[in-house]
Every structure is written in C-alpha cells, then in structure tokens.
Amino acid sequence: MARYIFITGGVVSSLGKGLMAASLAALLQARGYRVRIRKFDPYLNVDPGTMSPYQHGEVYVTDDGAETDLDLGHYERFTGVSARQSDNVTQGRIYQTIITKERRGDYLGATVQVIPHVTDEIKAFALADTEGLDFVLCEIGGTVGDIESLPFMEAIRQLHNDLGRGQSIFVHVTLVPYIAAAGELKTKPTQHSVRELTSLGIQPDILLCRCEQPLPESERAKIALFCNVRTEAVIPALDAPNIYSVPAQYHAEGLDEEVLRAFGIEGAAEPEMSRWLDIMDRYANPEGEVTIGVVGKYVGLQDAYKSLHEALVHGGLANRVKVNIRWIDAELFEEPDSDIAARLEPMHGILVPGGFGVRGSEGKIASVRFARERGVPFFGICLGMQMACIEGARNTAGIAHASTTEFGETSEPVVGLITEWMSAEGLQQRSAEGDLGGTMRLGAYDAKLTGNSVVAGIYGGTDISERHRHRYEVNAAYREPLEKGGLIFSGMSPDGQLPEIVERPDHPWFIGVQFHPELKSKPFDPHPLFAGFIEAAVKQSRLV
Ligand code: GLN
Predict the structure, then answer these.
(1) What CATH number does residue 363 fall under?
(2) pLDDT, tens only, 298-330
(3) Listed range (16-20, 251-255, 334-338) with the worst mean pLDDT
(4) 462 lies in a domain?
(5) Which atom of ligand 1 is nearest to the CA of 354?
(6) Are residues 206 and 76 in the same domain?
(7) Residue nearest to atom 7 of ligand 1 (CA)
(8) Does the pTM exceed 0.85?
C-alpha cells in the first residue's frame, strides 16, 4: 500500500511548497521508489482553467486534458511522471461533486455537512488511483490558518489515523526570516505556525525551514524543542541558486533520510543523483549564451509563462548555453512610433507564446514579420502560430484583411472557432454560445508530420502526440494561398482536418505549433523543438 506524505505550508505563501514536493519526490525516485504527487487547492473555482494568468499563473494541461495548477508542471519536470486529472483537485470541484450527489438524492435524506461529507470526498480523492505506488505526496495549497484550507487539514488529520501507524507523515514548510537590523534569524513565526497546525490535530514530523541565511545549530535546536520534533528533522532550506539544484541541496541537508526515518524505513538505497549532477553542471558551466525575446501579453508575471520559461532553460541545457529571456509586452509594438527594430535586433530568437484575446495581437503580428523578414529564428506557440498564419496571409499571400474570429467578425477568417473535432471519446462539438470552462480542445492529441519537413527532422519521426489547449484553429481552407506564400503546413491532425504545425523551409528556423510543447519538456529530457530553437539561436548569435 502506498505511503502518504502530507505537505503543508505556514507563515507566508509563496514558500515554494510545490518545488519542495517535487524535489522530495525526485529524491525518493532516485532511491528507486515509485512516486506520484498531488495538489489540493482550497479555492472555489472548479479548476484554474477560467482564471486569469495574472491571478493564478499558468494553467498546466495534462495528457488526459485536465486544466491544473502550475505546480503539477514542477512535479512532472522533476519526476518525469505524467500528471493526471486525478492529481489536482480544488475545493470547488469537491463541492460540485457533493452538490451533484445531493441533487440526485444520493445522501438519502441526510444533512450534508463539511464533516463528514466534504472531508470524505477529499479523502476519497487522495486515496484513488494509487496502484503500484510506494509514495503519494499530497501538497495542500494555501497557508495554515486560512479558513478555506480547514476541510483539507481535517481530511489529512483523519487520513493519518485511517491509514494506520507508519503509513503517513506530515511535512510542514515554514519561513525563518532574517531581521537585518538585529542581524538575527527569527524562529517565532515557525513556532506560531506549528502551534496553529497542532491546534488542528496535526503534529508535523519534519519541518522544512526556508531561510536566506544559514540556520545556526542553536536555532535549529530551539525550533525542535518548541515544535516538538527531533533536531535532525528541522531541515534548513537555504535559498537555492537555481531550482534544479534543490534536490541535491535538500539531500545534503538530510531531507529524504529524515522522511524515510519518520516512516521507520531502514537500509534504503542511497539516491542515484547522476541525472541531477549533470543538469547542475550544465547549468553552472555554460559554454555561451543567447538572448530570446518572448513577445506576449502577461509579461508582468513570470508565473504566467512558467513552463515556457523552464522549457527555454532546458533548450539551453541541451546546447550547453545560458538562455537570457527578455519578456516584451506586445502592446509596445502597437504604437505608431514603435521602436520594434531597436528592441528586437539584439534577440537571437523571437518567440510568440500562447494567449487569449485581441490585446497586443498587432504587436505580435509585427514581431512575426520582423523575424520572417530578418531571418531571425522564430517560434510561435498556439496563439503564436495563429499570429504567424495571419502575418503570412497578410504579407505573403495578399490577404490584407486576414484575422481570427477570436478578435471579432472578419471577412477573412484565417483562424476560426473549431466547432468539431475527433477525440478519443468520439466527435466533439462546440458552439460560440457554449460555456468557457473546460470546453477547449484539451490534452494530448496525435499529429502526423510530413516526411521531409523540418519538424520531422527535429522530432526524428512523423508521429507525435502533444498537449493542446485552444478553442480556435488555423482554417485549412487557406492552406493553398498560405503555402504559396512559403508557409508550409507540415503537421496535421491524423484525419487531415486540423493544421497542427506550420513552417517556412526557406527561413533559418521558423516554426509555429498549435500545441504547447513546453508542457512536456524536462531538464533531463529537453523538448526537441526547444533544443532546436536554441540551437538555431546559437547559430544566429554567431552571425550578429
Ligand atoms: N486563443 C487561442 C485559442 O483559443 C490560443 C490559445 C492558446 O494560445 N493557448 O485558440
């Protein structure tokens, strides 16, 4: 039976619980255990799919088409285990399930309550779909003390009892702030947050203490004493130079050893860390650097493009170069006296990422044009591919009014609403009036690549599967004029209906994809499109 590790956070939010969970899972995996990580989000949205990227950061999409929290991206990148719908639940989804059951009459007249009905639903979620696993790590979103997270705290308290002795532990992540004026690290917030946790019936086994300064032994002992844990179980977590050094750092501080000890597991294999040491070496010792301009809309918040950022870094690891990313607001290029050339000339590659809505779109189209005309490597993802097609239609196929129906009515819908497509579950149909939540073309779909295309060379084959999240699609009726203008449709859905990839073979590197390759890139297995894009940027950097 799988053992459970419940991870909670205290003091403040943004402590990096997700990265901590991912790193601990990576360490257990490096010791030969089979792991899976789950995220429990206390908010009332059914999923983050309809939330603004400014509110919640990127929406991470799984193979099975779930729109999930971005922490699932960290989990996948650190463990290589594909996340599933059953790895992320929100309080909203829990309530939706309960209310549906209540309306159906499933509760047979009982009063429906937080305890036991909400907590039972949370527990059922934690326990489902765990066959063959050694460890399930459950990260509880939010901070101890939040009203919203109470049912989750109660559920994991109950689970700890239900599972029986030695089957689950609690790891609490806290902050030990440094007060510069006093020159001291302060343990009081940690003490208070553990007290809050114990008042809910949860005694942590391990404390992971985030700190900017090394934690002196005396402070470690003090935390242990006041929080009722062993001194060795107070793990200092100093800020790391980069996220991929976190597993090795936590291992050096004894985190995985303490976890195994808390479970009473003795004689476990030492972790095999060569994969992480190689990544750290590549990261720390680049042989060159390139600068990539990302022209998008949500550039004020890096979390909005989390996976994209990581995939670009992975492309750099594959080529042993440092990737400098310049986040550029597409709206800057919409002003009449925009200095687009001055801003984009220093870039060795230009990327237009996924997005929604008309704002900044003309600036994105102008960036595509710049990349095409100047021979600068160009990568368009999802909306970025759609912008590349509109740019191609307007400027290389003579379709002056080319646009997308996403931006309003148009006489030349080069991009339009997809109303029908085939999925594993059969024919999917949508209309313009439908709901916004969970109704896009979501998750893994196959595509067929043209044999002699640039992308087939990059993938090393013609059959691919990639993750999607879109409502609009390039209109295949415009294929002929676009191809005459040099933009070749080199990847299509297996039924030949939906364009998946476009490329310009007469350009050093110009590729647009309807899917999100960044979601599947891993530091130890960089996505071929990102490895190829950065390789082209390296060549470009030698030219300019
Ligand atoms: N807004 C576009 C669509 O729905 C692109 C979506 C995206 O970039 N993820 O098709």
Answers:
(1) 3.40.50.880
(2) 887 888 899 999 999 999 999 999 999 999 999
(3) 334-338
(4) no
(5) 8
(6) yes
(7) 354
(8) yes
pLDDT at 283 exceeding the cut of 90: yes
Return the pLDDT at 306.
93
If asked whether residues 259 and 289 sit together in one domain, one would say: no
Ligand 1 center–CA 333 separation, angstroms: 21
Q: Is the CB of 356 under 6 A from ligand 1?
A: yes
**Which of 265, 294, 314 is where one domain is finished?**
265
Give domain status of residue 42, yes or no: yes
Q: Is 515 in the pocket of ligand 1 (CB under 6 A)?
A: no
Number of domains in the chain: 2
Catalytic residue status for 518: yes
SS3 content of the chain, % helix, strand, coil (to 5): 40, 25, 35
pLDDT class for 432, splitting at 50, 70, 90? confident
Q: φ, ψ for residue 119 (rounded to 5)?
A: -65, -35
Look at residue 216 and tell me whether its pLDDT is greater than 80.
yes
Both 170 and 298 in one domain: the answer is no
What are the b/e assignments for 165-178, b being 16+ CB within 10 Å? eeebbbbbbbbbbe
CA of 386 to the centre of ligand 1 (A): 8
User: Using a 6 Å cutoff on CB, does residue 383 contact ligand 1?
Assistant: yes
Residues 246, 325 within the same domain: no
Q: Whose CA is nearest to atom 1 of ligand 1?
A: 356
Given this model, what pLDDT does residue 544 score? 65
Tokens (6 digits) for 441: 């073309």
CA-nearest of 14, 4, 25, 57 to 173 is 14
Tell me whether residue 342 is in a domain. Answer: yes
The count of other CB atoms within 10 Å of the CB of residue 50 is 14
Do residues 63 and 155 both lie within one domain? yes
Please pick, among 382, 389, 406, 500, the residue that the annotation labels catalytic. 382
Clarify whether 516 is annotated catalytic. yes
CA 394 to ligand 1 centroid distance, Å: 20
pLDDT at 302: 80
Among residues 214, 242, 265, the one where a domain terminates is 265
Cis, bond preceding 286 (omega within 30 deg of 0)? no
E strand spans, 114-253 = 135-140, 168-175, 178-179, 184-185, 206-211, 234-238
- Clarify whether residues 241 and 349 are in a common domain: no
Centroid of ligand 1 to alpha carbon of 537 (angstroms): 25
pLDDT at site 13: 80
For atom 8 of ligand 1, the residue with the nearest CA is 354
Same domain? For 244 and 303 the reply is no
Whether residue 348 lies in the annotated active site: no
Whether pLDDT at 94 is above 80:
yes
Share of the chain above pLDDT 90, in %: 82
Q: Does the beta carbon of 282 lie inside 6 Å of ligand 1? A: no
Q: What is the CATH number of the domain that holds 68?
A: 3.40.50.300
Q: Which domain holds residue 534?
A: 280-417+472-541
Pairing of strands 349-352, 378-381: parallel
Give per-residue pLDDT as tens, 513-524. 999 999 999 999
> What number does the ligand 1 atom closest to the CA of 355 have?
8
Q: Residue 146: its pLDDT value, please?
A: 92
Domain assignment present for residue 466? The answer is no
Strands 289-296 and 322-329, by their bridges, are parallel
Q: Is the CB of 471 under 6 A from ligand 1?
A: yes
Are 250 and 290 contained in the same domain? no
Which ligand 1 atom sits nearest the alpha carbon of residue 516?
9
